UniProtKB/TrEMBL annotation:
Residues 1-25 are annotated as: Disordered. It comes from the Bacteria. This is DUF3097 domain-containing protein. Transmembrane segments: none annotated. Residues 20-79, 108-264 form the DUF3097 domain.
Length: 267
């Protein structure tokens, strides 16, 4: 028969029980062994993933007495629900679970082409639906003056426009200046095409290649990278590597956020 030895540890040396806290998304805790402090973004069987204020992720085991909550030792437990909702949208905004899409505003955001619209939808889609902002696309900016005149922007119907390669002295900059008003805002990024606004590291390339003047830029990119010269397929590959705002260049992020703020601002 197996013999069991009594626990002779003095009561004052036994570890005190600590609170058990569900690892709900958004809960901010610290892992004392590494000093890593962050918010819970997911909790799976046996592990919890934290995100710090710089966007860095770390995965830790769900061990007893394994974390600090407001300086106090706690044991994180898996939430009772087996599914957890993301606390942030792809744009970095706070997610609103169960929020319904707002009825579309009279205001609009125009972008230059289909690829631009698809990228904006991928990152800002949740935000735009909650705000009731519709994104439409142009085929270039040459017809922008006529489009703006037909839209007739006003206090209750603001118009925002995102333009590729908006640099001083360019044709695009002159067109933008001609239609800008109190109720129409034209902003842009410095990239030749929206492809270039995706970080090369996200696509898995060292940098976006330089394409000789006079060549079709997208086709030239495919050639330089050794991709099949199918720009539609190339774009789908690029778009598939975009998961959040962190995959985009800041020169694009700031402009899109500014346009959303412009068209949703109170009268």
């Amino acid at each position: 028969m197996r013999q069991y030895s009594p626990d002779l540890t003095p009561p004052w040396k036994k570890p005190k029980p600590v609170p058990e806290v569900p690892a709900e998304p958004g809960l901010v805790v610290e892992e004392p062994g590494t000093g890593f402090c962050g918010a819970v973004i997911r909790c799976e069987a046996g592990t919890v993933t934290l995100e710090d204020r710089f966007g860095k992720h770390r995965v830790f085991p769900l061990e007893p007495r394994g974390f600090l909550l407001e300086g106090q030792v706690v044991t994180l437990t898996r939430p009772s629900s087996t599914t957890t909702r993301p606390t942030r949208t792809a744009s970095g905004s706070v997610a609103v679970p169960g929020a319904r899409a707002r009825v579309a505003r009279a205001g609009r955001i125009y972008v230059e082409g289909r690829h631009d619209a698809e990228l904006v939808e991928r990152v800002w889609g949740d935000d735009l639906r909650i705000e009731g902002v519709v994104v439409e696309y142009l085929e270039g900016v040459d017809d922008l003056p006529a489009i703006v005149a037909d839209f007739s922007p006003g206090p209750d119907a603001r118009l925002g426009v995102l333009v590729d390669h908006l640099v001083p002295g360019s044709k695009e900059s002159r067109i933008a200046a001609s239609v800008t008003s109190d109720h129409a805002l034209v902003l842009g990024h410095p990239y030749i095409d929206i492809w270039e606004a995706v970080k090369p590291s996200s696509v898995g390339i060292p940098s976006w290649p330089r394409v000789p003047h006079g060549q079709d830029w997208k086709t030239g990119v495919c050639r330089a990278l050794g991709w099949p010269e199918n720009t539609g397929a190339a774009w789908q590959h690029i778009l598939s590597r975009v998961h959040s705002y962190k995959d985009l260049q800041p020169e694009l992020l700031g402009r899109v956020e500014e346009l959303i703020d412009f068209v949703t601002a109170p009268h």
